[in-house]
Write a structure and sequence with these properties.
Elements (H helix, E strand, L loop, with lengths): L2 E2 L10 E2 L6 H10 L4 H8 L3 H13 L1 H21 L9
Antiparallel strand pairs: 1-2
Length: 91
């Protein structure tokens, strides 16, 4: 299987080996965006078989992928809340 994990790449999220394409990105492209697997393969410059491997991994590890999604959303929210904001609005 060409799905791998490495803490130094994508924070340890499952991804297609040799790429920075995460399983959740492939799944989101096919499932959430209603794109064909062939379209996602073309857009992400991966093979169609890699798309199907990523989808297979996704379905076998749905809770794991959802946990990465929650962690990512939480991190985004923390960054958003701690970003520099002007003290007053300039009019």
């Amino acid at each position: 299987m060409s799905i791998t994990r490495d803490e130094a790449v994508l924070g340890g999220e499952p991804r297609i080996e040799g790429t920075r394409v995460g399983v959740r990105h492939v799944a989101a492209g096919v499932l959430d965006s209603d794109r064909s697997p062939a379209h996602i393969a073309d857009q992400l410059d991966i093979s169609l078989s890699e798309v199907y491997e990523a989808l297979s991994y996704y379905y076998a590890h749905v809770e794991e992928i959802r946990e990465f999604e929650r962690e990512n959303e939480d991190a985004f929210e923390r960054i958003h809340e701690s970003s520099l904001k002007p003290k007053e609005t300039i009019q």
